[in-house]
Amino acid sequence: MHQPATGPESISGSKARFRRPWLGRLRSASVTLGFVVVFWAVGLVSLAFGAFGPNGILRLDVAATTHTFPEHWWTIASSALWARDPISYILETVLLLLIGIPAERRLGHRAFALAAVASQLLGLVIALGFLVVASGLLGNWTEEIGNHLFLGPSAFVIGAAMAGTASMATLWRRRIRLAGFALLFLLALYSGAFADLVRLAAAAVGTVLGPLLLGRRPRIGRLASTRHEGRVLIALLIGASAIGPVLAGLIPHAVGPLSILRFLFTNIQPVDPQSLQSLCSDPAQAKDCAVAQLQLRAGAGGIFMAILPSFLLVLMADGLRRGRRFAWAGALLIQLGLSVLAIIAIANVFLSSPAETGASEGIAAIEGSGYPNPLALALPLLLPLVLSTVLLGSRRLFQVPAPAGTYKRQASRILPTAAVLSVVYVGVGLLVAQDFTPAPGLANLLADVPDRFLPLGYVLDVPPAFFPQGADAVLLYEGVGVVFWAVAGAVIYRTFLRQAHTRLDSSTERAKALIMAGEGSSLSWMTTWPGNMYWFSPGGRSFVAYRVRTGIALTLGAPVGPESEVATAFAEFARFCRANGWTPCFYSVPQELRDHADSAGWSSAQVAQETVLPLHSLTFKGKKFQDIRTALNNAAKEGIRYEWTSFAAAHFSVQVQIEEISEEWVADRNMPEMGFTLGSLDELDDPEVRCLLAVDRHRKVHAVTSWLPIYRNGHIVGWTLDFMRRRSTGFRSSIEFLIASAALSLKDEGCEFLSLSGAPLARAEEAADVAQRRTPSRPPRSVDRLLDWLGATLEPVYGFRSLLAFKAKFQPTYEPLYMLYPDAASLPAVGTAVARAYLPTLNLGAGLALAGRIFRKPKR
After folding, report:
1. How do residues 470-523 score in pLDDT, each as one tens digit?
2. If you ran DSSP here, which 8-state letter would residue 401 be given?
3. For the chain, give me the number of helices (H) and strands (E)?
4. Burial of 524 (C-beta count, 10 Å sphere; 0-12/13-18/19+)
5. Which run of H or E residues covers position 786?
6. Helix H or strand E encompassing 23
7. For residues 456 and 310, is the Cβ–Cβ distance under 8 A?
8. Phi then psi for 649, rounded to 5 degrees?
């Protein structure tokens, strides 16, 4: 056997191979590395002026300020070549290497250099222009930052990085931009330094410039295309509103337009000796003096209790991200409480002098912060009211309940903790009473117990009855609240981590039991999705799932139950609707029910075409299955295999990949995610729903499909395809591979058929027309004309007909699905109800965007 060489030549060769990738990386970032050399060289040369970096007169000549124009116009460029001090040089260099190198490799040398220069120059110009305009609107904020200066390359690095996101996949581009702008806005609005404004403006310039450098037009996408994205956006907004005031409270000289909210959200008091002496010299501010002394003595504990509302909001923000109903209610309750405090503070601004208002409300400090009029002072305080309105308007995004018994278990842990800590506080307080001033008695300690669980500064505006002096007393005084809220926060957070799919209301449980025991259709499991209401037959063996929109009771499929009761349930549900003043409309029902409805005088229109694969004779042999066999063979060559699982049972890394694929799929289309008969991530998280994944050797998920069970007399006889998403950079034929693999696998399990589900507003003949690029083969008639036009109009956006043409590869049988309605006069309301069911999150902005994409002139 030939032995590998191990001599000096082999070792030197391996070193050379090791060096080549690193040399390639360095060459691909020559602009960044060249600037680092210049940056440090200029800094070292400035040592001749007595400091590492510009100092004295030189700093005034090279640093950008709010007075840069017109006397020092060159500083919009020169400010990038220096930093303030040695630590700043190190930090700016790290920023350059960590962000600049990847951005340059992604953009290329020339595009990176253009993005960097434009971001630096335009970022400063835009920031200065904004300050000129804002000087009359935001009070003396511009005067507050008049002595600020900007130095360093951070602006052009951030701008170039944002430009580089234009070449990323949609999902990561949106994530990086969202996170980046959230941080930059947070700093600009709360810290408010001149440098924060410059970086924010540079990021905006880079975002617009990136697509232009890549030969594309910039476009504004939807902030949230899916329910999941909408939740993340609201959670980010609530989290930022909580972190910002804390940031402003901890930064010594925060002057941002929202920095005054630190007096509402937090009660962080100045603790330097001079400020403390000034605060405690006024008897009217005895309470704030006590708070400041507690923060000074208790340190982190005192700060924690001072920022408790922000801590709770950040905790609720994580629950909002997960769609939890409890988190929505908790965040709304906190914001409403802060709104009440804001209204009180605004009233004090307009009705009282600063001295009468008192520092406990923070108004005296606010009045002295440079705001020229009460209106400019009061407007930022309205933020809690705005956030409360946002939460109320987005309630439908947060409908995920906790598992059964969660809140009982939560209360059984939190309430005893509060009781034990109360007893400890009173008992130990009596033992160390000599460490308080004055020494409290039993009655004093009992009366003080509720205040120990409240944030500092949110108790009654009266001086404290006693005050801790010794270390033990301070630890007890603040430790009770810190321990309680740490325990409560951990308990609440754990409830957010628990899977919520096990919680169903009694109607849904009853419907699910009837589906499993009776004769379900391919749509039956969709009736268990959130958003449906249920009507049960008097005998309790059948039900109808429906939702009411614009006076229309829109069903999801036909009545579920024994076949012999379908006609009776149809008539009884129609009577139930009329008794409630609704117009019934049965949506996506089979031919048999349509024939019965026709005989009863109802009208109908075909709204979808279901594709069904009988499994008993399926082999995927012959020329007509050539594409399917090619997908199976190519998957085997690339080491891609299929894997059955459920979303809840999948490993966390797999769940994250599924979420990424779904978000990317929706974001690429930049349109609202549809619902009703089309499932999303929320419907995927069901233990009865099976997921089929296309996974490679490295556990990378290339595509995912979900399958809904079809029951007959307690047994699963088939599965319905629902969720179907593919990674844009993954195996191209992964969906064909998954559907074919599912058919062969489920055939071996003894299933009778698969439903590839229906394509809304599409028929087999229109799908063939789309596939073969020919004109429609038959003229539409009556209401079908409207539906055909709507299907053709929506085709460029949602591709329903293309989807049906894709499913034709599997040579399915076609079964039409109909919409049944009693009166043609109700068609406008029926159309509105169907649109709202499919697009529940469609608002005016999204509607205009949809119309723009529909009627956009196609490129030739």
Report:
1. 778 888 888 888 899 999 999 998 888 776 554 556 888 889 989 988 777 888
2. P
3. 37, 15
4. buried
5. helix 782-798
6. helix 8-27
7. no
8. -85, -15
